[in-house]
Amino acid sequence: MSAASRPKLSGLFTALAAVALITIALVGAPTASGTDEAPPVAPSTLSAVEAIAQIEGEDGVLAFDVAEDASRFAWAGEPALEDGRPVGRTPFISQGYIYPEGTLTDSDGVLADGSPEFPDQVLGEWSCYGWFLGGAARAGSASWLTTHLFNFGGAWGEATIVSDGYSIDDLGVTLERAITGGTGPYEDARGIQRETNLGFNPTDGVNFRYELRLDER
Question: What is the pLDDT of residue 195?
Answer without folding.
Answer: 97
